[in-house]
Amino acid sequence: MEVQGVRINKFLSEAGVCSRREADRLIEKGSVCIDGRIAVQGDKVKEGQKVTVNGKSISKEEEEIFLAFYKPKGIVCTTAEKENGEKVKNVVDYIGYKKRIYPIGRLDQASEGLLLMTNQGDIMEKILRSRYNHEKEYFVKVDRKLDDKFIKGMSSGVPILDTVTKPCKIWKEDDYSFHIILTQGLNRQIRRMCEYFGYRVVYLRRDRIMNIKLDGLKKGRYRQLTQKEISELKRQL
User: Fold this and answer.
1) What is the pLDDT of residues 88-125, one digit of tens each?
2) Does residue 199 contact residue 142 with C-beta atoms inside 8 Å?
3) Which one of 3, 60, 140, 143 has the lowest number of neighbouring Cβ atoms within 10 Å?
4) What are the C-alpha distances in Å from 139 to residues 51, 113, 131, 159?
5) What contacts 176, CB < 8 A, 6 or more positions away?
6) Taking residues 210-218, what's their average pLDDT?
7) Which position has the higher pLDDT, 127 or 169?
8) Cα–Cα dist 132/134, whole Å
9) How far apart are CA 105 and CA 75, in angstroms?
10) 175-194: b or e for each residue (b if 16 or more CB lie within 10 Å)?
11) In the chain, what is the straight-line distance between the N-terminal and C-terminal CA atoms, in Å?
12) If pLDDT is split at 50, 70 and 90, which confidence band does 132 have?
């Protein structure tokens, strides 16, 4: 660790506790302490200092962990036990991995498919930054027959959430389903895009994140990424 220390949110991210964004939320709640003092935003951790989260001592995990997980419907992509005051089935407890890991991004509760899990905060942040145009591929079924206007409109950019989505690749599987490749990750993006054209998503599955594919993975199970997959992932980042 550098003599001048590292920011507390980065320290927690690199220790495999959570993302920097979630670390900021923990700090705001007063859940993080440095040498017994409640941490505030911008604090730095120096070598030899003791960091705790909700009373538990935190140290940096040296082993790089990368998992591909087939998230079933109903599982929430968070490390928290509650959301909006209600108890949830969070992905970390569901997997029950022996070391601290957290999800890279989110896949909404009603959707299923590929979710990457890691303890490498900096790599997670790079994957999530939309300006790098990292591809994510999905398979989607809707409630009524697709038409050419829908396919063209979806691919050209759709006004949602006070913005317009980036142009994307989309192709039909059959009259009621399609594949789509996005390079950004707005909240419930595909569902909102479909709603704009009067369609309702009835099934959504994420099949690929960058070079990592869901192929062969059973629902509710996870696997370690191969060294080849990890090397290619880092190369693309």
Assistant:
1) 888 989 999 988 888 888 899 999 999 999 888 777 77
2) yes
3) 3
4) 42, 9, 23, 21
5) 141, 142, 143, 144, 145, 146
6) 94
7) 169
8) 6
9) 14
10) ebebebebbeeeebbbbbbb
11) 23
12) low
Find how far residue 115's CA is from the centre of its chain.
7
**Length of the chain (residues):** 237
Check whether 64 has a pLDDT greater than 90: no
Reply yes or no on whether 35 is catalytic. Answer: no
Q: Which two tokens stand for residue 172?
A: 């039909």
> Which token pair is 226?
């191969």
In this predicted structure, what is the pLDDT of residue 19? 76
Token look-up 């027959």 returns 145
Structure tokens that stand for 58 in this block: 């935190």
68 contacts 217 by C-beta, under 8 angstroms: yes
Q: Is the pLDDT of residue 2 over 70?
A: no
Which entry of 24, 35, 93, 108 is annotated as an active-site residue?
108
Rounded Cα distance, 42 and 36, in Å: 17
CA separation for the pair 105, 93 (Å, rounded):
17
